[in-house]
Amino acid sequence: MNLKTGSDKAPLVAVTGASGFIGRHLVVALARAGWRTRLLLRREPDVPQWRNLRPEVVAGSLGDGAALSRLVEGADAVIHMGGLIKAARQADFFSVNRDAAAALAQAARQCAPDAHFISVSSLAAREPLLSDYAGSKRAGEIAVLDELGSRATVLRPPAVYGPGDRETLLFFQLARMRRVPLLGGSNARIAMIHVNDLVRLIVALAAARPSGGIVSAADAHPEGYRWDELLGAAARAVGNPAPRFMQAPQGLLSCVALLGDAARLMGSASMLSSQKLRELRHLDWSVPMTELVWPTGWAPEFDLEAGFADAVTWYRTAGWLPR
Length: 323
Fold this sequence. Notes:
seven-stranded parallel β-sheet, 40% helix, two-stranded parallel sheet, 13 strands, 323 residues, Rossmann fold, alpha/beta
Protein backbone atom coordinates (compact mmCIF):
# COMPACT_ATOMS: atom_id res chain seq x y z
CA MET A 1 0.00 0.00 0.00
CA ASN A 2 1.39 3.40 -0.95
CA LEU A 3 -1.40 5.84 -0.16
CA LYS A 4 -1.09 9.16 1.68
CA THR A 5 -3.29 10.88 4.23
CA GLY A 6 -4.43 14.37 3.26
CA SER A 7 -2.76 16.81 0.89
CA ASP A 8 0.66 16.16 -0.61
CA LYS A 9 1.62 19.58 0.76
CA ALA A 10 0.87 18.56 4.33
CA PRO A 11 3.88 17.85 6.58
CA LEU A 12 5.04 14.26 6.64
CA VAL A 13 5.71 12.31 9.83
CA ALA A 14 7.40 8.90 9.93
CA VAL A 15 6.27 6.64 12.78
CA THR A 16 7.53 3.39 14.27
CA GLY A 17 5.50 1.32 16.73
CA ALA A 18 2.24 2.46 15.15
CA SER A 19 0.54 -0.91 15.67
CA GLY A 20 0.97 -0.79 19.46
CA PHE A 21 -1.47 0.52 22.05
CA ILE A 22 -0.25 4.13 21.99
CA GLY A 23 0.66 4.07 18.31
CA ARG A 24 -2.85 3.21 17.16
CA HIS A 25 -4.18 6.29 18.90
CA LEU A 26 -1.25 8.42 17.73
CA VAL A 27 -1.88 7.78 14.02
CA VAL A 28 -5.45 9.04 14.41
CA ALA A 29 -4.31 12.14 16.34
CA LEU A 30 -1.65 12.96 13.72
CA ALA A 31 -4.15 12.69 10.88
CA ARG A 32 -6.60 14.94 12.71
CA ALA A 33 -3.84 17.50 13.15
CA GLY A 34 -3.16 17.56 9.40
CA TRP A 35 -0.06 15.39 9.14
CA ARG A 36 0.59 12.86 6.40
CA THR A 37 1.67 9.63 8.07
CA ARG A 38 4.20 7.04 6.91
CA LEU A 39 4.34 3.94 9.08
CA LEU A 40 6.86 1.14 9.49
CA LEU A 41 4.83 -2.07 9.70
CA ARG A 42 5.55 -5.75 9.24
CA ARG A 43 2.23 -6.32 7.48
CA GLU A 44 -0.72 -4.43 6.01
CA PRO A 45 -2.62 -2.70 8.83
CA ASP A 46 -5.99 -4.00 10.03
CA VAL A 47 -6.83 -1.30 12.55
CA PRO A 48 -10.49 -0.21 12.71
CA GLN A 49 -9.58 3.34 13.75
CA TRP A 50 -7.49 3.77 10.57
CA ARG A 51 -10.04 2.70 7.97
CA ASN A 52 -10.56 6.20 6.59
CA LEU A 53 -6.99 7.43 7.11
CA ARG A 54 -5.09 5.41 4.50
CA PRO A 55 -1.56 5.97 5.83
CA GLU A 56 1.46 5.26 3.69
CA VAL A 57 3.14 2.01 4.77
CA VAL A 58 6.77 0.94 4.55
CA ALA A 59 7.00 -2.82 4.91
CA GLY A 60 9.76 -3.90 7.26
CA SER A 61 11.00 -4.06 10.81
CA LEU A 62 13.28 -2.06 13.10
CA GLY A 63 16.10 -4.43 12.16
CA ASP A 64 15.84 -3.60 8.44
CA GLY A 65 18.19 -0.71 7.67
CA ALA A 66 16.87 -0.20 4.15
CA ALA A 67 13.31 0.02 5.44
CA LEU A 68 14.34 2.59 8.04
CA SER A 69 15.86 4.76 5.33
CA ARG A 70 12.70 4.51 3.20
CA LEU A 71 10.61 5.32 6.24
CA VAL A 72 12.31 8.59 7.12
CA GLU A 73 13.21 9.82 3.61
CA GLY A 74 12.02 13.43 3.32
CA ALA A 75 10.09 13.38 6.61
CA ASP A 76 9.43 16.60 8.50
CA ALA A 77 9.25 14.70 11.79
CA VAL A 78 10.11 11.20 13.00
CA ILE A 79 8.31 9.68 15.98
CA HIS A 80 9.99 6.55 17.32
CA MET A 81 7.66 4.45 19.45
CA GLY A 82 8.78 0.97 18.50
CA GLY A 83 10.31 -1.17 21.22
CA LEU A 84 10.03 -4.20 23.49
CA ILE A 85 8.28 -4.15 26.85
CA LYS A 86 8.91 -7.83 27.50
CA ALA A 87 11.63 -10.18 26.28
CA ALA A 88 13.18 -13.50 27.17
CA ARG A 89 16.76 -12.19 27.18
CA GLN A 90 18.60 -9.01 28.09
CA ALA A 91 20.15 -9.02 24.60
CA ASP A 92 16.69 -8.87 23.03
CA PHE A 93 15.81 -5.73 25.01
CA PHE A 94 19.04 -3.98 24.02
CA SER A 95 18.90 -5.08 20.40
CA VAL A 96 15.53 -3.37 19.92
CA ASN A 97 15.37 -0.61 22.53
CA ARG A 98 18.95 0.61 22.08
CA ASP A 99 20.39 -0.61 18.78
CA ALA A 100 17.28 -0.09 16.66
CA ALA A 101 16.80 3.38 18.14
CA ALA A 102 20.39 4.22 17.20
CA ALA A 103 19.90 2.87 13.66
CA LEU A 104 16.72 4.91 13.16
CA ALA A 105 18.41 8.06 14.46
CA GLN A 106 21.28 7.50 12.04
CA ALA A 107 18.84 7.01 9.15
CA ALA A 108 17.07 10.23 10.11
CA ARG A 109 20.36 12.14 10.20
CA GLN A 110 21.24 10.90 6.72
CA CYS A 111 17.84 10.91 4.98
CA ALA A 112 15.81 13.56 6.84
CA PRO A 113 18.39 16.08 8.03
CA ASP A 114 15.85 18.71 9.05
CA ALA A 115 13.34 16.41 10.77
CA HIS A 116 12.44 16.77 14.44
CA PHE A 117 13.14 13.33 15.94
CA ILE A 118 10.93 12.41 18.90
CA SER A 119 11.90 9.28 20.80
CA VAL A 120 9.08 8.07 23.04
CA SER A 121 10.86 6.34 25.88
CA SER A 122 9.57 5.48 29.36
CA LEU A 123 9.76 6.93 32.86
CA ALA A 124 11.39 3.60 33.76
CA ALA A 125 14.53 4.82 31.99
CA ARG A 126 15.09 7.13 34.98
CA GLU A 127 15.99 4.02 37.01
CA PRO A 128 18.10 1.94 34.59
CA LEU A 129 19.33 -0.50 37.25
CA LEU A 130 15.83 -1.74 38.11
CA SER A 131 15.46 -4.00 35.09
CA ASP A 132 16.80 -4.94 31.67
CA TYR A 133 13.84 -3.06 30.18
CA ALA A 134 14.64 0.14 32.07
CA GLY A 135 18.34 -0.16 31.28
CA SER A 136 17.70 -0.72 27.58
CA LYS A 137 15.35 2.26 27.37
CA ARG A 138 17.95 4.49 29.00
CA ALA A 139 20.58 3.18 26.60
CA GLY A 140 18.24 3.98 23.70
CA GLU A 141 17.82 7.54 24.92
CA ILE A 142 21.59 8.01 25.09
CA ALA A 143 22.02 6.54 21.61
CA VAL A 144 19.47 8.91 20.07
CA LEU A 145 20.86 12.02 21.76
CA ASP A 146 24.44 11.04 20.88
CA GLU A 147 23.45 10.69 17.23
CA LEU A 148 21.17 13.71 16.82
CA GLY A 149 21.84 16.07 19.72
CA SER A 150 19.71 19.20 19.52
CA ARG A 151 17.54 17.77 16.73
CA ALA A 152 15.99 15.22 19.07
CA THR A 153 13.47 15.25 21.89
CA VAL A 154 13.26 12.29 24.25
CA LEU A 155 9.85 11.97 25.91
CA ARG A 156 9.36 9.82 29.00
CA PRO A 157 5.68 9.00 29.59
CA PRO A 158 4.58 7.63 32.98
CA ALA A 159 2.03 4.80 33.22
CA VAL A 160 -0.29 5.17 30.21
CA TYR A 161 -3.85 3.87 30.31
CA GLY A 162 -7.00 4.05 28.23
CA PRO A 163 -9.00 2.21 25.56
CA GLY A 164 -7.16 -0.79 24.20
CA ASP A 165 -4.49 -1.10 26.91
CA ARG A 166 -3.92 -4.62 28.18
CA GLU A 167 -1.33 -3.77 30.84
CA THR A 168 -3.44 -1.51 33.07
CA LEU A 169 -6.47 -3.78 32.58
CA LEU A 170 -5.14 -5.54 35.69
CA PHE A 171 -6.04 -2.48 37.81
CA PHE A 172 -9.69 -2.81 36.89
CA GLN A 173 -9.77 -6.59 37.29
CA LEU A 174 -8.38 -6.24 40.82
CA ALA A 175 -10.71 -3.33 41.58
CA ARG A 176 -13.78 -5.54 41.11
CA MET A 177 -12.81 -7.64 44.15
CA ARG A 178 -14.35 -7.15 47.58
CA ARG A 179 -10.90 -6.88 49.11
CA VAL A 180 -8.66 -5.01 46.68
CA PRO A 181 -4.93 -5.82 46.94
CA LEU A 182 -2.49 -2.91 46.83
CA LEU A 183 0.49 -3.83 44.66
CA GLY A 184 2.99 -1.37 46.12
CA GLY A 185 3.90 0.33 49.38
CA SER A 186 1.80 3.00 51.08
CA ASN A 187 4.42 5.68 50.33
CA ALA A 188 4.76 4.89 46.62
CA ARG A 189 3.69 7.47 44.01
CA ILE A 190 2.78 6.66 40.41
CA ALA A 191 2.26 9.35 37.77
CA MET A 192 -0.34 8.57 35.12
CA ILE A 193 -1.62 9.86 31.78
CA HIS A 194 -4.57 8.95 29.56
CA VAL A 195 -3.51 7.77 26.11
CA ASN A 196 -5.54 10.48 24.34
CA ASP A 197 -3.75 13.18 26.31
CA LEU A 198 -0.38 11.59 25.61
CA VAL A 199 -0.87 11.39 21.84
CA ARG A 200 -2.09 15.00 21.73
CA LEU A 201 1.10 15.92 23.58
CA ILE A 202 3.26 14.02 21.10
CA VAL A 203 1.52 15.76 18.20
CA ALA A 204 2.15 19.14 19.83
CA LEU A 205 5.82 18.29 20.34
CA ALA A 206 6.20 17.15 16.72
CA ALA A 207 5.24 20.65 15.57
CA ALA A 208 7.48 22.39 18.12
CA ARG A 209 11.20 22.99 18.25
CA PRO A 210 13.30 20.04 19.46
CA SER A 211 14.42 20.21 23.08
CA GLY A 212 17.72 18.47 22.52
CA GLY A 213 17.17 16.66 25.82
CA ILE A 214 14.85 14.57 27.97
CA VAL A 215 11.39 15.66 29.10
CA SER A 216 8.60 13.81 30.89
CA ALA A 217 4.82 13.70 30.63
CA ALA A 218 2.00 13.38 33.15
CA ASP A 219 -1.60 14.38 33.74
CA ALA A 220 -2.53 17.36 35.92
CA HIS A 221 -1.05 15.55 38.95
CA PRO A 222 2.61 14.97 38.09
CA GLU A 223 3.29 14.25 41.75
CA GLY A 224 1.49 10.97 41.12
CA TYR A 225 -1.01 8.87 43.02
CA ARG A 226 -0.86 6.44 45.92
CA TRP A 227 -1.87 2.85 45.19
CA ASP A 228 -5.07 3.23 47.21
CA GLU A 229 -5.95 6.34 45.17
CA LEU A 230 -5.34 4.51 41.92
CA LEU A 231 -7.24 1.37 42.80
CA GLY A 232 -9.96 3.37 44.56
CA ALA A 233 -10.62 5.29 41.34
CA ALA A 234 -10.52 2.02 39.39
CA ALA A 235 -13.02 0.48 41.84
CA ARG A 236 -15.45 3.37 41.39
CA ALA A 237 -15.10 3.07 37.63
CA VAL A 238 -16.14 -0.60 37.72
CA GLY A 239 -19.01 0.00 40.15
CA ASN A 240 -17.33 -0.99 43.41
CA PRO A 241 -17.72 2.25 45.40
CA ALA A 242 -16.54 1.04 48.81
CA PRO A 243 -13.67 -1.42 48.39
CA ARG A 244 -11.65 -2.71 51.32
CA PHE A 245 -7.94 -2.42 50.67
CA MET A 246 -5.32 -4.92 51.72
CA GLN A 247 -1.59 -5.06 51.08
CA ALA A 248 -0.88 -7.70 48.46
CA PRO A 249 1.10 -10.56 50.02
CA GLN A 250 4.66 -9.87 48.96
CA GLY A 251 5.53 -13.56 49.17
CA LEU A 252 2.79 -14.39 46.67
CA LEU A 253 3.94 -11.65 44.28
CA SER A 254 7.50 -12.92 44.57
CA CYS A 255 6.41 -16.48 43.77
CA VAL A 256 4.49 -15.33 40.70
CA ALA A 257 7.52 -13.30 39.62
CA LEU A 258 9.76 -16.34 40.02
CA LEU A 259 7.49 -18.26 37.65
CA GLY A 260 8.05 -15.46 35.16
CA ASP A 261 11.80 -15.75 35.72
CA ALA A 262 11.62 -19.47 35.02
CA ALA A 263 9.68 -18.79 31.83
CA ARG A 264 12.39 -16.35 30.70
CA LEU A 265 15.07 -18.97 31.34
CA MET A 266 13.15 -21.30 29.02
CA GLY A 267 13.03 -18.65 26.31
CA SER A 268 9.52 -17.31 26.87
CA ALA A 269 8.93 -13.58 27.35
CA SER A 270 6.92 -12.99 30.52
CA MET A 271 5.41 -9.66 31.57
CA LEU A 272 5.70 -10.38 35.31
CA SER A 273 9.19 -11.24 36.51
CA SER A 274 11.41 -10.31 39.43
CA GLN A 275 12.67 -7.35 37.42
CA LYS A 276 9.15 -6.17 36.59
CA LEU A 277 8.21 -6.56 40.25
CA ARG A 278 11.08 -4.26 41.20
CA GLU A 279 9.67 -1.67 38.79
CA LEU A 280 6.17 -2.13 40.19
CA ARG A 281 7.32 -1.73 43.80
CA HIS A 282 9.59 1.25 43.18
CA LEU A 283 8.57 4.09 45.49
CA ASP A 284 8.89 7.10 43.23
CA TRP A 285 7.35 7.20 39.77
CA SER A 286 6.32 10.84 40.14
CA VAL A 287 7.38 13.51 37.61
CA PRO A 288 9.25 16.54 38.99
CA MET A 289 8.04 19.87 37.67
CA THR A 290 11.54 20.54 36.34
CA GLU A 291 11.17 17.55 33.97
CA LEU A 292 7.53 18.09 32.98
CA VAL A 293 6.78 19.22 29.43
CA TRP A 294 3.64 21.31 28.84
CA PRO A 295 3.68 22.84 25.34
CA THR A 296 1.60 25.90 24.47
CA GLY A 297 -1.97 24.96 23.61
CA TRP A 298 -1.84 21.57 25.31
CA ALA A 299 -3.40 20.56 28.61
CA PRO A 300 -4.57 17.15 29.85
CA GLU A 301 -8.30 16.64 29.30
CA PHE A 302 -8.69 13.56 31.51
CA ASP A 303 -8.39 13.44 35.27
CA LEU A 304 -8.13 10.01 36.86
CA GLU A 305 -11.88 9.59 37.47
CA ALA A 306 -12.93 10.51 33.94
CA GLY A 307 -10.01 8.66 32.40
CA PHE A 308 -10.67 5.42 34.24
CA ALA A 309 -14.39 5.65 33.42
CA ASP A 310 -13.49 6.06 29.75
CA ALA A 311 -11.20 3.02 29.87
CA VAL A 312 -13.84 0.86 31.57
CA THR A 313 -16.48 1.81 29.01
CA TRP A 314 -14.16 0.61 26.26
CA TYR A 315 -13.18 -2.58 28.11
CA ARG A 316 -16.82 -3.53 28.60
CA THR A 317 -17.74 -2.80 25.00
CA ALA A 318 -14.79 -4.93 23.85
CA GLY A 319 -15.72 -7.74 26.27
CA TRP A 320 -12.52 -7.42 28.31
CA LEU A 321 -14.51 -6.65 31.47
CA PRO A 322 -18.01 -7.87 32.40
CA ARG A 323 -20.81 -5.33 32.32
